[in-house]
Amino acid sequence: MPLDPQLEAMFANQPEWPPIRNIPVPVLRESVRSSSIQLPPPQVSLASVSDRTIPGPNGEIPVRIYTPEGKGPFPVTAYFHGGGFVVGDLDTQDMIARGLAAGAETIVVSVDYRLAPEHKFPAAFEDCWAATQWAAANAAELGGDPALIAVAGDSAGGVLASACALLARDAGAPRIAAQINWYGPGIHPIPEEGSALEFANGPVLRLEDAHYFWELHIKDESDYDDFRASPMKAESHKGLAPAFIAAAECDPIRDAVEAYGPVLEKAGVEVEVKRYPGMVHGFVSWLGFLPGAQEAMADACAFARKQFAAARQTA
C-alpha cells in the first residue's frame, strides 16, 4: 500500500530530512524538540499534569505525571518516549502521554531517562526500570492502584517497555498488567532484509539512521545480545504481561517490530500485533491530526483497558 495521502501531502511541502549521521547531536535534539512541540496535542481532558523528580540509579530522574479525569484509584503506566535513545524528552512526546492517560484511563508517569551518547547502554533502561518500580511503590500516593501497573513506549521507548516487562517478570515484581509498544523493534541490530530494504531510505527514518542511533547507544556489539537491547533474545518469554505491538507499514524497522509478536505467542503470551497501512515510523506523535495515529492510540488504549479489567478480576 502506498504512503498515507495525508502524510504524502505533508511531506511534499517539507524539505527532505538529511541523514542524521551528518547532524551534530545537540542540533539534532533541538531540531526534533522544536518540531515536536509545534504539533497539536490531542483534544483530551485530564484532571492534572505535573512535573517532579524521582530517585534514580544516577541521581534524580525528571518525570511528568498525567492523571485522568474520573474517580480512582486508576491503573498506573510508566511511559518511555522514543528518539533512538539519543533524542527526546518529556515535551517531545507529551501528546502520546496525554492520549494514553485519557484513552486508557490510567495515570501515566512519563520518564525523562538519560540519553546516549553521553550515557551509554544500559543507562536508559536502568532509569526506566527504576521509574517502573517507583510507579508501583508510589501508586497509592498518586491516586493509583499498585496492583494495576503497565509499561508503554514508542520506538526506543517501546524497546525499553518490552525490556522492563521482562525484568519485572524475572524479579517477581511489580506485576505488569499490560505492555504497549508502538514500533519498538524486538531485535538489534535490525536485520537487513524485508522492510529494512524496502524502506531503507524512509520516509522519516532511514535504515542507516536506525543503525547510527544504536552506534551512539551501545558500548560494543556484545550489548546486542542483552535482552534489555534485544527483547527477542531473552532466554524465555513465558509468563510475560499481555502485549500490544503496533507497526507502521512504511517503516524500515517494521519487520523487526512485528517479529516479536510470534515469539511471545509461541511462549503462550497474549499478544496483539497490528500493522497500520500507509503509516511511517513515529506516526503516533501526529495524534492531534492524523487518523492513523488516532486509531493506533485507540487500539492500544482499548487493549490496556481490557487487561486492566482482567487484572482487577484476578486481584
UniProtKB/TrEMBL annotation:
GO terms for molecular function: hydrolase activity. InterPro entries: AB_hydrolase_3, AB_hydrolase_fold, GDXG_lipolytic_enzyme, Lipase_GDXG_put_SER_AS. Keywords: Hydrolase. Residues 79-284 form the Alpha/beta hydrolase fold-3 domain. The active site is at S155. It comes from the Bacteria. SUPFAM superfamilies: alpha/beta-Hydrolases. Pfam families: Abhydrolase_3. Transmembrane segments: none annotated. Belongs to the 'GDXG' lipolytic enzyme family. This is Alpha/beta hydrolase. It comes from Sphingobium agri. The lineage of its organism: Bacteria, Pseudomonadati, Pseudomonadota, Alphaproteobacteria, Sphingomonadales.
